[in-house]
Give the backbone structure.
Amino acid sequence: MIENNPTNLMAAFDMLLEEIEAEIEFTAKTGARAFEARDYDRAREALERAARITAFREKADTLRREWEAIVGTAEDEDEEDDERVSRRDLGRLARGLRTGEDAYRVPILEALAGMGGSGAMSEVLERICQSMRGVLKDVDFEPLASDPALPRWRNTACWARNAMVKEGLLKGDSRRGVWEISELGRRLLAERAAG
C-alpha cells in the first residue's frame, strides 16, 4: 500500500496563497502611495502587477482545489491532529491552519439570503463571523502580516466571495461594497436545504 501525507501539500498551498495575498496587499499599498505622490506611471505599474499577481493567485487556488479533489476532504479528528503536527513541521504554526475558503461558501449564501439577497460587505461579514463561530479557529482571528488591522478570516471570506462571483453564485456587477446573491446561488442554497 502506498502511504502519503496529502496534508503537507495542502498546508503548502495555504502558505503559498497567504504569501501571495500579502504580496497583493503590499503592491496595492505601493500603488496607493505612488498615486498619492502623483507618480502615475509607478501607480499604473503597481496596478498592473497587482492584477497579474491576483490572476496567479487564482491559478494557485485552482490547483489547490484540484489537489483537494484528488486526495479528498474527509478527515476525522485524529487526522486533523496529525495534520497540525505535520503543518507545524513545515515552519510557522499559523500557516496552513486557517479555515479554508470552501467553508465560507454556505455561510455567505445564507447571510445574503437572510438579508433579502444583498447587503453591505461589512454587514455580510459580521453575519458570517457570527454563523461561523464554531468553525473559525484562533488563527483565523489573527491579523494578516500585510495588514495588522485585518483579521485573516475576513480576508479569506473576501477571497471566497471572489471565487463565488466567478462561479456565478454571487453577482459580479453589484455596487462597490455590496455583496449580492445570484439566482444560481439561491438555487444552490435551496438544494442544500432540501437535500
